[in-house]
Amino acid sequence: MLANQKVYISLVISAFLIFGCKPDTARLTFAVGGASNEIEFWEKIIGEFTDSTGIAVIVLRQPTDTDQRRQGLVIPLRSRQRDPDIFLMDVVWVGQFVVADWLEPLDSVIMANDIDIGNFFEPIIDQVDTYHDKLYALPVYNDCGLLYYRRDLLEKYGFRSPTTWQELIESAVSIQERERIKNPYFYGFVWQGAQYEGLICNFLEFAVSNNGGIIDSGGSMIVHTPQNIEATKLMHDIIYKYSISPPNTYTEMKEEETRLTFEKGNALYERNWPYAWGLHNGEESPVRGKVAVTVLPRANNGQHASTLGGWHIGISRFSDRRTEASMLLKFVLSYETQKNLALMLGWNPGRSDLYEDEDINASVPHLNILKKSFENAAARPTTPFYTQISDVLQKHLSAVLSGESSPDEALLKAQHEIKETLKRYHE
Amino acid sequence: MSRKIKEPVLFILPLIFFIVVFLLFPVLGTFWNSLWQDVSFIARRFIAFSNYVRLLTDGRFWQATLFTVMFALVSVFFEMVFGMITALVLNAHSRLRGALRGIALIPWAIPSVIGARIWQLIYRYDYGIANILLGKAGVGPVNWLGSPVGAFTSLVVADVWRTTPFVAIILLAGLQTVPDDMLQQAQIDGANLFQRFFKIMIPLIRPILIVAILFRTIDAIRVFDLIYVITGGGPGGATTSLSMYGYKFFLTGDFGYGSAISVILFIIAFLFALLFVRIGRLRA
Prior knowledge:
Mean pLDDT of chain A: 88
Number of domains of chain A: 2
Strand content of chain A: 5-15%
Strand order of the largest sheet of chain B: 1-2
Strand content of chain B: under 5%
Number of helices of chain B: 13
Number of helices of chain A: 18
Structural class of chain B: mainly alpha
Distance between the termini of chain B: 39 Å
CATH superfamily of chain B: MetI-like
Shape of chain B: flat
Distance between the termini of chain A: 68 Å
Number of domains of chain B: 1
Low-confidence stretches of chain A: 17-22
Oligomer: heterodimer
Radius of gyration of chain B: 23 Å
CATH topology of the largest domain in chain A: D-Maltodextrin-Binding Protein, domain 2
Helix content of chain A: 40-55%
Shape of chain A: globular
């Protein structure tokens, strides 16, 4: 008896050892991440998908931090693992994953599943998802920089919402001075200036709205241009010369810090992503009902620009369940799922046809502003080495904002380092 | 092989196994990785020492090295000073001794990320305690982390706060080995407080002092969590330590170069260790 028990136990243990580590090939694996409400949403969607198709799906939960999330996909894909089969990618990763040859082209998936590309924003599909005329990913939800403002304060002091940076500065200086009398913590304009990816997103908006940018018309990377120097100087002056942004802009201001400052009633203007809208109007928010949204300002001779963010869906080239994966892709991009995403999470659907939907328009009054912003979307470069380039730029822009370096010198150094980086990897 | 040789070998075998698996293998593996160009989206290729050549001309690497060494020297110096003071206080005969020893250890007992988070909240510009207190005193808010010097000082303060108890406990163990009668005899012979401290206590606890400095220096050279939480390496990269700089390449996916930085970090820590072991042996 005892001997039998021993054999049985060791069999069980070895079974665990052998099968415990093996990827679950019997089921589809879908990698998602983000805040808890996002993961809850995906679990609900997956439940509906499994109910209607009978296909079991494992939701692979990833961390909230974008860089760590990327690393969590890079490691299995580099080693050609069969899982995850299908995943969400930040807009800037799509180019990297395509160059690494990790994504299944979607052209045949679209044909087989009757997905109409016409239902998506053309500039986004063109700038992010298409390489050499092949489609590799599709937007699940879009993000873009927006200008939030205090409607009540602009009315009180007789200003209209700004369309140029100059108008923004003038009204902010004037209102800040008068609001400070009763609130010493009041600032005209809060935005994301800490040294992280958000700084690049903000820089891109300042730059592109001043006819600058990171990529020139020939597709090469140029940052040391008169337009960009001017834009960087404006970012610096907003903190130091006009003093409408707090001194901790370049040390602490990320999305949540700006949101909380604005929500406490300590700011007139705020640059942030669409997610802030719902929170600004939450039950507990002191600025509830006093907030409005518009497109980000432009230079006097420039045009509006919003940095494009958002997450796109793609299928792994190493997936062993491509048919099921493409069914899930279709399900995620269906009108109903996208509508749920807009209504439940308050996010902006990847599909453009939802921007005409009555229910969504009723819950998101500024939908037309969003639509306009997506049409002005400024994408970040799609090189596979974007992360390294962003890192270089972040450091030099931060040096300008902390007063350690001049815009001219910093951008020249950044230009040089970017060139070195690209040269090194292309050798 | 005779039984005489076999047995000792058998006894040290597990130790050798652990050293090889957990020490030698990772160090050599990292060194091996550092000889490759290993970038996320392109094919891996062998480039011998090119990563090290790149380090030579990498301004950010030198900045990080300088910062790391400066941080280690300055913070370990203050930790020794305050650690010694704390140890002397705790060594004094008093009814509160037991309670004081417990209280003094609190900063060390707090997980370092949480300790760093506490300091981050203290330094915060808009609702940090430091600025609120200054505001009460009528002084305008200070952007503590806004300048390279301010950020450096803030980090040193946080690190000294956190690790002084550790130093104090080690030194206290040393102080307890100093015989009371020796100190009393010196006092009778006319040695004043400072003479008793520098001529008797310090020479007697010297080996333990060296151990404390060694532990703390190596630890400070590898500093990561504190900086990651409080400054994130800013402003403008001024407080990026070597381990944070190496980590950056894990995130951006340049594993070979990141490994080269780790190897250099290892060498610097190793050199400091050799230096202190040598100092410890001199005169001992």
